[in-house]
Design goal:
This protein is of the alpha/beta class and 247 residues long. The protein has one domain (2-244): LmbE-like (Rossmann fold). The protein has nine helices and seven strands. The protein has a five-stranded mixed beta sheet. It has a two-stranded parallel ribbon with strand order 1-2.
């Protein structure tokens, strides 16, 4: 989602960035505490590239669960950041951590204004409207290998260089994915997938795809700030919209 983040930054928006898990399992060579420190610094480096505020991770890999404790910590971040746009993982993906992170993020956003919702550390509730968008899954397919279309496409062609630089900041992630999942250079994989999403859009050379979450509990029904802010750099897939109504 780096391309969309960069475009929002260029449009004058403040960026907030959080990895819920600390990456402690993403290595074949390092001890846990060492790789956690490495991953944290890489995240800080990536944030610095695009001027994003960094929030600390709250759990180890494979320990992202929809629990009161985990949700409460993310509620605190949502209330601090006060997002109008919340970019989240896909609800379905190849890895449980990704899907659980998505679910935790949705619940935390829903609880942003609930005065009695667990929040740790305590942060006053907020009443701001927020619109949630889900990224496409890795490899653009769900866990059952089915292709996942996007509801709208963001043209990232003009910021691909910066997107690549931001991803390259996560050096240990590249080494881990190359060794464990056979992605070769994950920078080249990212470009390939971005080009494929651009092809799916029917318009753009490189794109990121998004699906807008239900407005219920979050905002007015017709709010789509991503399209409003990015203008002709964001197109809505009308066929996808029609499919939501079964037509």
């Amino acid at each position: 989602m780096a391309g969309t983040l960069i475009l929002l930054k260029n449009a004058g928006w403040d960026l907030h960035y959080m990895n819920i898990a600390n990456g402690n399992c993403g290595t074949e060579t390092e001890e846990s505490e060492r790789i956690i420190a490495v991953r944290r610094q890489e995240a800080l480096d990536a944030c610095k590239l695009i001027g994003a505020r960094h929030y600390e991770s709250i759990t180890n890999d494979l320990e992202i669960y929809h629990t009161t404790e985990v949700v409460a910590k993310v509620v605190a971040v949502v209330r601090q950041a006060r997002p109008r746009i919340l970019l989240l993982m896909s609800p379905t993906d190849y890895m449980e951590d990704h899907m659980n992170a998505c679910r935790v993020g949705v619940t935390a956003a829903f609880a942003r204004g609930m005065r009695n919702a667990p929040c740790g550390p305590p942060v006053p509730p907020i009443s701001d409207e927020v619109t949630l968008y889900h990224a496409q899954p890795i490899a653009l397919r769900d866990p059952l290998r089915r292709s996942v279309p996007a509801g709208q496409y963001v043209d990232i062609s003009s910021v691909m260089k910066m997107k690549r630089e931001m991803l390259a900041a996560h050096r240990s992630q590249k080494e881990w994915l190359d060794a464990s999942q056979g992605l070769d250079s994950y920078l080249d994989t990212m470009e390939m997938l971005s080009r494929e999403v651009g092809r799916m859009s029917g318009v753009f050379e490189y794109a990121e795809g998004w699906r807008r979450h239900s407005h219920l509990g979050f905002s007015a029904a017709d709010q789509d700030p991503l399209s409003e802010v990015l203008g002709d750099r964001c197109i809505v897939d009308q066929e996808y919209e029609r499919s939501l109504d079964g037509s």
